[in-house]
Amino acid sequence: MLYDQDHGDARATEVDLLLDYEESFSGKLREGHGFVGLPASIVGDKADDWAVIRLAEAPDAAYPRLPLAGGPVTVDDPVFIVQHPGGRPKEIGLTRNLVRHVGADRVQYLTDTEGGSSGSPVFNARWQVVAVHHKWTTVGGPGAGAGREYRNQGVAIGRVAAGLRAAGVVVANA
Question: What's the CATH code, domain 80-163?
Answer without folding.
Answer: 2.40.10.10
